[in-house]
Amino acid sequence: MNKTSYKINLVEDEESLASILKAYLEKEGWSVSVFHTGEEAMHYLHNGVHLWILDIMLPGMSGYDLIKKIKENHSEQPVIFISARDQDLDKILGLELGSDDYLAKPFLPKELVIRVKKLLHRVYGAGIHENRLVISKYQLDVVRRKVFDEENQLIELTTKEFDVLLYLVENVNIAKSRQDILNEVWGEDYVGSDRAVDDVVRRIRRKMERLSLETVYGSGYRIVS
Fold it and tell me: Which residues form a coiled coil (predicted)?
């Protein structure tokens, strides 16, 4: 996998540190989303991310609570913990909860970059780590964010099309309102028409004709398995 296609979620409440780390990580060609609370990050559990970097000490929901939610939904997604607290205790607890690495504050941003590189290579480097979902004979490769038909031909989807598709597939047989989809894919601070959802759904239907993507009048959309 090309390193430029990696997506990272960084959850850090110190804004200045978060922006420094984001700059260093993006210099490597990675795409980084920053969240300052666990509650905010919870809305993006399903955005097809490749790595989480979590501060343990967050206001409200802690990094420990957040990793539990991540692992419940996506056990394969690697997590790096960062913390300024009791290092040994945090490290042990973090490992027990499923973290892959631990970095004690203060640390050099470059050290985090090195740890991230090593972890991404370990998890995805050989290209064998694939998380595939199958719906209507289409295969969704969640890690590489690609969709294939039954002849294994790639179907070209935009980022928004893939995100909407993944959200509906992960909630298969459940109707999701336009507002649900907007909050999940565009983010809760999105300002604009909810018709953006209709436009993306229309394009998905055109590209994936066999997909049973239903309009639920008064409710929104759902994919039926």
Answer: none
